[in-house]
Protein backbone atom coordinates (compact mmCIF):
# COMPACT_ATOMS: atom_id res chain seq x y z
CA UNK A 1 0.00 0.00 0.00
CA UNK A 2 2.17 2.96 -1.21
CA UNK A 3 1.29 5.84 1.11
CA UNK A 4 3.89 8.49 1.84
CA UNK A 5 4.14 11.93 3.39
CA UNK A 6 6.20 14.79 2.07
CA UNK A 7 7.07 18.18 3.52
CA UNK A 8 6.49 20.79 0.82
CA UNK A 9 6.85 24.58 1.03
CA UNK A 10 3.50 26.26 1.76
CA UNK A 11 2.99 30.03 1.82
CA UNK A 12 -0.01 32.36 2.02
CA UNK A 13 -0.84 34.34 -1.10
CA UNK A 14 -3.36 36.58 0.67
CA UNK A 15 -3.56 38.12 4.13
CA UNK A 16 -6.05 39.70 6.54
CA UNK A 17 -7.77 41.51 7.97
CA UNK A 18 -10.06 40.86 4.97
CA UNK A 19 -10.91 37.29 3.96
CA UNK A 20 -9.90 35.82 0.60
CA UNK A 21 -10.70 32.68 -1.36
CA UNK A 22 -10.94 31.48 -4.95
CA UNK A 23 -13.62 28.81 -4.98
CA UNK A 24 -13.86 25.50 -6.76
CA UNK A 25 -11.19 23.01 -7.74
CA UNK A 26 -11.66 22.76 -11.52
CA UNK A 27 -10.16 26.06 -12.74
CA UNK A 28 -6.74 27.74 -13.05
CA UNK A 29 -6.43 30.75 -10.68
CA UNK A 30 -3.06 31.62 -12.32
CA UNK A 31 -2.78 33.69 -15.49
CA UNK A 32 -0.86 32.41 -18.51
CA UNK A 33 2.46 33.70 -17.14
CA UNK A 34 1.94 32.13 -13.71
CA UNK A 35 2.33 35.52 -12.02
CA UNK A 36 -1.15 36.83 -11.20
CA UNK A 37 -3.56 34.74 -9.11
CA UNK A 38 -7.30 35.48 -9.02
CA UNK A 39 -9.10 35.77 -5.71
CA UNK A 40 -12.23 37.10 -4.03
CA UNK A 41 -12.32 39.34 -0.95
CA UNK A 42 -14.93 39.99 1.75
CA UNK A 43 -15.02 41.50 5.23
CA UNK A 44 -16.82 38.50 6.80
CA UNK A 45 -16.62 34.71 6.64
CA UNK A 46 -19.01 33.39 9.29
CA UNK A 47 -22.42 33.53 7.59
CA UNK A 48 -24.01 32.89 4.20
CA UNK A 49 -23.99 35.84 1.79
CA UNK A 50 -27.23 37.72 1.34
CA UNK A 51 -28.53 39.49 -1.77
CA UNK A 52 -26.87 42.79 -0.74
CA UNK A 53 -23.45 41.35 0.11
CA UNK A 54 -20.78 42.10 -2.48
CA UNK A 55 -17.50 40.25 -2.99
CA UNK A 56 -14.51 42.10 -4.44
CA UNK A 57 -12.73 40.46 -7.39
CA UNK A 58 -8.99 40.98 -7.60
CA UNK A 59 -5.57 39.63 -8.42
CA UNK A 60 -2.53 38.75 -6.33
CA UNK A 61 0.77 39.72 -7.96
CA UNK A 62 3.19 37.01 -6.81
CA UNK A 63 6.14 38.89 -8.34
CA UNK A 64 5.52 41.95 -6.20
CA UNK A 65 5.12 40.64 -2.67
CA UNK A 66 1.62 39.24 -3.30
CA UNK A 67 0.26 42.73 -3.93
CA UNK A 68 -3.56 42.70 -4.04
CA UNK A 69 -5.28 44.69 -6.81
CA UNK A 70 -9.09 45.00 -6.76
CA UNK A 71 -10.73 44.86 -10.19
CA UNK A 72 -14.51 44.67 -9.75
CA UNK A 73 -17.23 43.41 -7.45
CA UNK A 74 -20.11 40.98 -7.74
CA UNK A 75 -23.37 40.12 -5.97
CA UNK A 76 -23.47 36.62 -7.52
CA UNK A 77 -21.24 34.46 -5.34
CA UNK A 78 -21.08 31.79 -2.64
CA UNK A 79 -18.44 30.34 -0.33
CA UNK A 80 -18.02 27.03 -2.16
CA UNK A 81 -17.60 28.05 -5.78
CA UNK A 82 -17.07 31.78 -5.54
CA UNK A 83 -18.43 33.47 -8.64
CA UNK A 84 -17.04 30.97 -11.22
CA UNK A 85 -14.09 33.37 -11.49
CA UNK A 86 -11.49 32.29 -14.06
CA UNK A 87 -9.11 33.42 -16.76
CA UNK A 88 -10.80 33.18 -20.13
CA UNK A 89 -9.09 30.21 -21.86
CA UNK A 90 -8.89 32.11 -25.15
CA UNK A 91 -7.06 35.05 -23.50
CA UNK A 92 -5.53 33.78 -20.22
CA UNK A 93 -3.00 36.61 -20.15
CA UNK A 94 -5.52 39.44 -19.95
CA UNK A 95 -9.22 38.53 -19.73
CA UNK A 96 -11.23 37.15 -16.83
CA UNK A 97 -14.79 35.87 -16.59
CA UNK A 98 -17.15 35.99 -13.59
CA UNK A 99 -20.85 36.00 -12.73
CA UNK A 100 -22.87 39.05 -11.70
CA UNK A 101 -26.38 40.04 -10.71
CA UNK A 102 -28.11 42.71 -12.76
CA UNK A 103 -31.42 43.68 -11.18
CA UNK A 104 -33.67 40.62 -11.09
CA UNK A 105 -31.44 38.30 -13.12
CA UNK A 106 -27.97 36.78 -13.12
CA UNK A 107 -25.50 37.19 -15.95
CA UNK A 108 -21.75 37.16 -16.51
CA UNK A 109 -18.98 39.56 -17.49
CA UNK A 110 -15.76 39.28 -19.48
CA UNK A 111 -13.25 41.88 -18.26
CA UNK A 112 -9.85 42.97 -19.53
CA UNK A 113 -7.66 43.22 -16.41
CA UNK A 114 -5.38 45.76 -18.04
CA UNK A 115 -7.87 48.26 -19.46
CA UNK A 116 -10.85 47.46 -17.22
CA UNK A 117 -13.06 47.18 -20.30
CA UNK A 118 -16.02 44.83 -19.76
CA UNK A 119 -18.43 42.91 -21.95
CA UNK A 120 -21.74 41.68 -20.52
CA UNK A 121 -23.23 38.26 -21.29
CA UNK A 122 -26.92 37.37 -20.83
CA UNK A 123 -26.50 34.27 -18.64
CA UNK A 124 -24.27 33.26 -15.75
CA UNK A 125 -21.62 30.68 -16.57
CA UNK A 126 -21.20 27.35 -14.83
CA UNK A 127 -18.49 25.79 -17.00
CA UNK A 128 -16.41 27.20 -19.86
CA UNK A 129 -15.18 25.21 -22.85
CA UNK A 130 -11.45 24.50 -23.00
CA UNK A 131 -11.12 26.72 -26.08
CA UNK A 132 -12.89 29.62 -24.34
CA UNK A 133 -15.48 30.05 -27.07
CA UNK A 134 -18.60 28.81 -25.26
CA UNK A 135 -20.05 28.06 -21.84
CA UNK A 136 -22.92 26.20 -20.24
CA UNK A 137 -25.30 27.80 -17.78
CA UNK A 138 -27.85 26.68 -15.19
CA UNK A 139 -30.43 28.23 -12.88
CA UNK A 140 -28.43 29.44 -9.85
CA UNK A 141 -31.61 30.55 -8.09
CA UNK A 142 -32.90 26.98 -8.10
CA UNK A 143 -29.56 25.64 -6.83
CA UNK A 144 -29.65 28.24 -4.04
CA UNK A 145 -32.87 26.68 -2.76
CA UNK A 146 -32.01 23.02 -3.40
CA UNK A 147 -28.35 23.06 -2.37
CA UNK A 148 -27.50 26.15 -0.27
CA UNK A 149 -23.92 27.22 -0.72
CA UNK A 150 -23.78 26.53 -4.46
CA UNK A 151 -26.38 28.95 -5.83
CA UNK A 152 -26.79 32.71 -5.47
CA UNK A 153 -29.05 34.74 -3.20
CA UNK A 154 -31.33 37.24 -4.88
CA UNK A 155 -33.80 36.67 -7.72
CA UNK A 156 -36.31 33.86 -6.99
CA UNK A 157 -36.52 30.69 -9.04
CA UNK A 158 -39.31 31.22 -11.61
CA UNK A 159 -40.13 27.49 -11.40
CA UNK A 160 -39.87 27.15 -7.64
CA UNK A 161 -43.07 25.11 -7.33
CA UNK A 162 -42.43 22.88 -10.35
CA UNK A 163 -40.50 19.73 -9.35
CA UNK A 164 -39.15 19.19 -12.89
CA UNK A 165 -39.77 22.16 -15.21
CA UNK A 166 -39.53 21.84 -18.97
CA UNK A 167 -38.39 25.45 -19.33
CA UNK A 168 -35.45 25.05 -16.93
CA UNK A 169 -32.25 23.07 -17.48
CA UNK A 170 -28.88 23.63 -19.17
CA UNK A 171 -28.19 26.40 -21.65
CA UNK A 172 -25.30 26.64 -24.10
CA UNK A 173 -23.94 30.18 -24.59
CA UNK A 174 -21.57 31.65 -27.19
CA UNK A 175 -19.06 33.75 -25.23
CA UNK A 176 -18.46 36.14 -28.12
CA UNK A 177 -21.97 36.87 -29.36
CA UNK A 178 -23.99 35.99 -26.26
CA UNK A 179 -26.23 33.68 -28.29
CA UNK A 180 -27.98 31.16 -25.99
CA UNK A 181 -30.04 28.03 -26.44
CA UNK A 182 -31.40 25.42 -24.08
CA UNK A 183 -29.84 22.01 -24.72
CA UNK A 184 -31.31 19.88 -21.90
CA UNK A 185 -34.40 20.32 -19.73
CA UNK A 186 -34.89 19.14 -16.16
CA UNK A 187 -38.16 17.51 -17.19
CA UNK A 188 -36.38 15.56 -19.94
CA UNK A 189 -33.79 14.08 -17.57
CA UNK A 190 -36.22 13.45 -14.70
CA UNK A 191 -38.39 11.39 -17.07
CA UNK A 192 -35.51 9.04 -17.96
CA UNK A 193 -35.76 5.82 -15.93
CA UNK A 194 -37.61 7.48 -13.00
CA UNK A 195 -36.76 6.12 -9.56
CA UNK A 196 -39.13 5.52 -6.60
CA UNK A 197 -37.12 8.10 -4.61
CA UNK A 198 -38.17 10.76 -7.12
CA UNK A 199 -41.77 10.66 -5.91
CA UNK A 200 -42.49 14.18 -4.65
CA UNK A 201 -38.85 15.25 -5.12
CA UNK A 202 -37.51 18.48 -6.55
CA UNK A 203 -34.98 18.08 -9.39
CA UNK A 204 -32.03 20.28 -10.31
CA UNK A 205 -28.67 20.24 -12.14
CA UNK A 206 -25.21 21.24 -10.97
CA UNK A 207 -21.48 20.47 -11.32
CA UNK A 208 -20.98 20.80 -15.08
CA UNK A 209 -17.68 20.40 -16.94
CA UNK A 210 -16.56 20.17 -20.58
CA UNK A 211 -14.39 17.22 -21.54
CA UNK A 212 -10.86 17.74 -22.83
CA UNK A 213 -11.81 18.29 -26.49
CA UNK A 214 -15.10 20.16 -25.81
CA UNK A 215 -17.16 17.42 -27.48
CA UNK A 216 -19.11 16.44 -24.33
CA UNK A 217 -20.44 18.11 -21.20
CA UNK A 218 -20.78 16.22 -17.93
CA UNK A 219 -23.42 17.22 -15.35
CA UNK A 220 -25.04 15.91 -12.20
CA UNK A 221 -28.78 15.38 -11.98
CA UNK A 222 -29.94 15.61 -8.39
CA UNK A 223 -33.34 15.31 -6.81
CA UNK A 224 -34.17 16.55 -3.39
CA UNK A 225 -36.88 15.33 -1.07
CA UNK A 226 -36.91 16.92 2.38
CA UNK A 227 -33.26 17.00 3.53
CA UNK A 228 -31.94 14.13 1.42
CA UNK A 229 -30.79 14.12 -2.20
CA UNK A 230 -29.62 11.53 -4.68
CA UNK A 231 -27.51 11.86 -7.80
CA UNK A 232 -27.04 10.54 -11.32
CA UNK A 233 -24.21 11.55 -13.63
CA UNK A 234 -24.95 12.36 -17.28
CA UNK A 235 -23.05 13.49 -20.34
CA UNK A 236 -24.41 15.29 -23.38
CA UNK A 237 -23.15 16.93 -26.55
CA UNK A 238 -22.91 20.75 -26.44
CA UNK A 239 -25.80 20.81 -28.91
CA UNK A 240 -27.98 18.61 -26.66
CA UNK A 241 -27.37 15.39 -28.59
CA UNK A 242 -26.56 11.91 -27.29
CA UNK A 243 -27.72 12.33 -23.69
CA UNK A 244 -26.20 9.45 -21.69
CA UNK A 245 -26.41 8.30 -18.04
CA UNK A 246 -22.89 7.38 -16.91
CA UNK A 247 -23.64 6.48 -13.27
CA UNK A 248 -26.95 6.01 -11.48
CA UNK A 249 -26.39 4.16 -8.17
CA UNK A 250 -27.64 6.87 -5.76
CA UNK A 251 -24.45 8.89 -5.31
CA UNK A 252 -21.92 10.70 -7.49
CA UNK A 253 -19.81 13.47 -6.03
CA UNK A 254 -16.71 15.25 -7.33
CA UNK A 255 -15.18 14.44 -10.71
CA UNK A 256 -12.76 15.45 -13.46
CA UNK A 257 -12.37 14.38 -17.09
CA UNK A 258 -9.26 12.22 -17.66
CA UNK A 259 -9.51 12.74 -21.43
CA UNK A 260 -12.26 13.12 -24.03
CA UNK A 261 -13.83 9.76 -23.08
CA UNK A 262 -13.06 8.96 -19.42
CA UNK A 263 -14.29 10.59 -16.21
CA UNK A 264 -12.77 10.18 -12.75
CA UNK A 265 -15.49 10.46 -10.09
CA UNK A 266 -16.13 9.57 -6.47
CA UNK A 267 -19.28 7.48 -6.76
CA UNK A 268 -21.29 4.59 -5.40
CA UNK A 269 -21.58 1.37 -7.37
CA UNK A 270 -23.91 -1.17 -5.76
CA UNK A 271 -21.62 -4.10 -6.53
CA UNK A 272 -18.35 -2.48 -5.41
CA UNK A 273 -19.22 0.31 -2.97
CA UNK A 274 -18.03 3.91 -2.64
CA UNK A 275 -14.71 4.59 -4.42
CA UNK A 276 -13.04 6.69 -7.05
CA UNK A 277 -13.99 5.21 -10.42
CA UNK A 278 -12.77 5.87 -13.93
CA UNK A 279 -15.91 5.74 -16.07
CA UNK A 280 -15.75 5.48 -19.86
CA UNK A 281 -18.45 7.64 -21.40
CA UNK A 282 -21.20 5.92 -23.44
CA UNK A 283 -19.85 2.39 -22.84
CA UNK A 284 -20.88 1.26 -19.32
CA UNK A 285 -17.22 0.50 -18.53
CA UNK A 286 -15.68 1.51 -15.18
CA UNK A 287 -12.68 0.66 -13.02
CA UNK A 288 -11.71 1.57 -9.47
CA UNK A 289 -8.88 4.04 -8.88
CA UNK A 290 -6.71 4.00 -5.76
CA UNK A 291 -9.07 1.60 -4.03
CA UNK A 292 -6.71 0.88 -1.12
CA UNK A 293 -5.22 4.39 -0.65
CA UNK A 294 -7.89 6.89 -1.75
CA UNK A 295 -10.59 5.94 0.72
CA UNK A 296 -12.66 9.10 1.06
CA UNK A 297 -14.39 11.64 -1.14
CA UNK A 298 -12.39 14.67 -2.23
CA UNK A 299 -12.10 17.41 -4.82
CA UNK A 300 -10.13 15.62 -7.53
CA UNK A 301 -8.37 16.97 -10.62
CA UNK A 302 -5.71 15.72 -13.02
CA UNK A 303 -2.37 17.46 -13.40
CA UNK A 304 -1.79 19.17 -16.76
CA UNK A 305 0.30 16.19 -17.92
CA UNK A 306 -2.43 13.79 -16.63
CA UNK A 307 0.14 11.81 -14.59
CA UNK A 308 -1.02 12.90 -11.11
CA UNK A 309 -4.34 13.39 -9.35
CA UNK A 310 -4.70 16.19 -6.82
CA UNK A 311 -7.38 15.80 -4.16
CA UNK A 312 -8.21 16.50 -0.53
CA UNK A 313 -10.35 15.17 2.32
CA UNK A 314 -13.08 16.51 4.53
CA UNK A 315 -12.13 17.08 8.20
CA UNK A 316 -10.78 13.96 9.87
CA UNK A 317 -8.83 13.42 13.08
CA UNK A 318 -8.15 16.72 14.83
CA UNK A 319 -10.55 18.55 12.49
CA UNK A 320 -7.86 18.56 9.78
CA UNK A 321 -8.27 18.36 6.00
CA UNK A 322 -5.52 16.49 4.17
CA UNK A 323 -4.02 17.61 0.86
CA UNK A 324 -3.04 14.69 -1.39
CA UNK A 325 -1.33 13.98 -4.70
CA UNK A 326 -1.73 10.51 -6.18
CA UNK A 327 0.00 8.79 -9.09
CA UNK A 328 -2.23 6.15 -10.74
CA UNK A 329 0.66 4.52 -12.62
CA UNK A 330 2.06 2.95 -9.43
CA UNK A 331 -0.78 3.61 -6.95
CA UNK A 332 1.36 6.09 -4.99
CA UNK A 333 -0.39 8.44 -2.57
CA UNK A 334 1.62 11.32 -1.11
CA UNK A 335 0.12 13.49 1.65
CA UNK A 336 1.56 16.98 1.23
CA UNK A 337 -0.20 18.81 4.05
CA UNK A 338 -2.86 18.75 6.75
CA UNK A 339 -4.80 21.88 7.66
CA UNK A 340 -7.09 22.66 10.58
CA UNK A 341 -10.74 23.38 9.81
CA UNK A 342 -12.71 25.26 12.52
CA UNK A 343 -15.49 22.87 13.57
CA UNK A 344 -17.91 25.74 14.24
CA UNK A 345 -17.93 26.65 10.53
CA UNK A 346 -19.97 23.93 8.88
CA UNK A 347 -22.43 23.50 6.05
CA UNK A 348 -22.49 26.14 3.35
CA UNK A 349 -19.98 28.43 5.15
CA UNK A 350 -17.29 25.75 5.56
CA UNK A 351 -13.93 26.18 3.86
CA UNK A 352 -12.99 23.13 1.80
CA UNK A 353 -9.43 23.15 0.48
CA UNK A 354 -10.65 22.85 -3.13
CA UNK A 355 -7.05 22.45 -4.40
CA UNK A 356 -6.14 23.69 -7.90
CA UNK A 357 -3.11 22.99 -10.11
CA UNK A 358 -1.06 25.70 -11.73
CA UNK A 359 -0.59 25.53 -15.48
CA UNK A 360 2.64 23.51 -15.47
CA UNK A 361 1.70 21.16 -12.63
CA UNK A 362 4.43 22.29 -10.21
CA UNK A 363 2.32 24.21 -7.67
CA UNK A 364 -1.15 23.99 -6.19
CA UNK A 365 -3.21 26.61 -4.41
CA UNK A 366 -6.02 26.06 -1.95
CA UNK A 367 -8.39 27.90 0.38
CA UNK A 368 -8.02 27.37 4.12
CA UNK A 369 -8.88 28.80 7.55
CA UNK A 370 -6.15 27.04 9.55
CA UNK A 371 -4.62 30.37 10.62
CA UNK A 372 -7.89 31.90 11.79
CA UNK A 373 -9.13 33.67 8.67
CA UNK A 374 -10.13 32.52 5.19
CA UNK A 375 -7.11 32.89 2.89
CA UNK A 376 -5.51 31.48 -0.27
CA UNK A 377 -2.31 29.43 0.07
CA UNK A 378 0.20 28.02 -2.39
CA UNK A 379 2.14 24.73 -2.07
CA UNK A 380 5.22 23.95 -4.14
CA UNK A 381 4.87 20.32 -5.26
CA UNK A 382 7.62 20.37 -7.89
CA UNK A 383 9.85 18.13 -5.76
CA UNK A 384 7.11 15.53 -5.41
CA UNK A 385 5.86 15.34 -8.98
CA UNK A 386 9.27 15.68 -10.69
Give an overview in words.
The chain is mainly beta and 386 residues long. The protein has a single domain (20-297), classed as Methylamine Dehydrogenase, Chain H (7 Propeller), CATH 2.130.10. It is built from three helices and 29 strands. The protein has helices spanning 140-146, 186-190, 382-385, and strands spanning 3-5, 10-12, 19-21, 36-42, 55-61, 67-74, 86-87, 95-102, 105-112, 118-121, 127-128, 134-137, 169-174, 180-185, 202-210, 217-225, 228-236, 244-247, 252-257, 262-269, 273-280, 286-289, 301-302, 309-312, 320-327, 332-340, 356-357, 363-368, 375-380. The strands form seven sheets. It has a five-stranded mixed sheet with strand order 1-26-25-24-23, with no helix packed on it. Strands 2-29-28-27 form a four-stranded antiparallel sheet, with no helix packed on it. A four-stranded antiparallel sheet has the order 3-4-5-6, with no helix packed on it. A hairpin with a 6-residue loop joins β28 and β29 (375-380).
